[in-house]
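We modelled the chain as a single entity of 270 amino acids. Its sequence is:
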Amino acid sequence: MAINLKTPDQIEKMRRAGRIIRRVLDRIGEMASPGVTTEELDAEAQRLTLECGAVPLFKGVPGRGSAGPFPACICASLNEQVVHGIPSERKISPRDIVSVDFGVSLDGWCADAAETFVMSDVPPDARRLVDVTRNALAMALEMARPGVGWSSVARAMQEYIEGEGFSVVREFVGHGIGSQMHEDPKVPNFVSRELELRDISLKEGVVLAVEPMVNMGSPAVEYAPDGWTVLTCDRLPSAHFEHTIAITAGGVDVLTDGRKQAALGIQVNK
């Protein structure tokens, strides 16, 4: 496993991409409401991405097996859809939770983030699922710093999530990111034997996309017939949050939270 450490200049370039992601996710949060289709969310994401001079990372990614390339800019996953949901004419309902994953490349550098949006009539147990998933990501950001082994962060996330009565998805994990969307290392949200044997030592210049995916019931997942959408096997809801982060001397620098827009001279039309 070869982790490519990023220079401060490269990290700032990734922050520029992250600022676009934040703008798009904020806009999707404004739009996501009952009666709106996930295709409409995707169209707006594409419009803003191109307007900002960026390239959507997901569109055109080759599929597994007989599945064709991913056809959209965002992944829009509702309720029991864990990740990689394809935007469609399906209208959002008042009881839906909507997980949106989105990545861009700007001037050759990537960033990736995800957020789960809660509609007005979502049941309390699903709201709590979303809160716990968001909290798990916040916990990871608080703990990550130079000299820390990722296994300690993953263990804390797993224990918190399972202590709340939910489960951590095993088949999909976070990842390193830089000039490519997926780089080493794989970044799990749970502790495995492999992680214990080959722990990830955090150090300055490590940049990761950290993304807990949490299920209400069993952690088991399966693919839908479209070859892309991942579903919970028990069809109970799942939630997903993600940030691209850089490890610095002072801890974690979140590159997808929208800071430093003016300093970096990014032009984002509202």
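As a brief sanity check on the tokenised model: The chain has six helices and 15 strands. The chain has one domain: 8-264.
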